[in-house]
Amino acid sequence: MARSALTTTAAAFTATATLLLTACGGGGDDSSPDDIKGADKGANSSTPSASAAGASDVQRPEITIPNSFQLTFESWTSGDPDEQAVLTDGKEQLRAGYAAIIANDPDSEALAFYDTESGLSQDRKWVQSYTDKNLTVIGKLPVSDPEATLFAKKTKAQLRYCTDESEARTKNRKTGKVEANPPGTDPKVAYTVTMQKNAQGVWQAVSTSSKRGGCS
């Protein structure tokens, strides 16, 4: 349930919350492609960055996720360095979203770092869909089958991947009540994240769409 399958509502993160939200009575299952992840703020955000010389010179925020929520990335590698850069930042963007939910922090600087301005607005709504209901996420959420496609002279990209919410859950911070997806819900959710590279070389999420049951 980590990256809920509720329909992508708030960006790549929303996509994640999709499931959790759905389990908690959230909305639908689809979302419009280009609907969620944002990543512009990353350029001006949190940690000081070295120069625009290269992404490796940028000081990225440290993101910590407790053992109570195991967000794992399977085969998250590519032999192409440009594609790997997209995979790496896309992974951190997703981690930042879940970390914000767990920390009850919609204004997370890490999330802002990996989101564009428009994406950040959507992602904050996604995070708040949990925090406003006193919910956090627990369990396991494998993220697999990543595929990065670059275009526009390698300044824009589309990142696709799948999540399996079979062992993901939401937990009420006050009551301790734990909920999973409703019976009969397909646990596999396919995500498509539109990303762009900022002046510092960091790939940021612009929008995200999800489709429950869309994984091959």
TrEMBL record:
PROSITE patterns attached to this UniProt entry: PROKAR_LIPOPROTEIN (PS51257)
Bias (Low complexity): 43-56
Annotated signal sequence range: 1-23
Keywords linked to the UniProt accession: Signal
Stretches for region Disordered: 24-61, 163-188
Domain of life: Bacteria
The protein's name in its UniProt record: Lipoprotein
Species name: Streptomyces viridiviolaceus
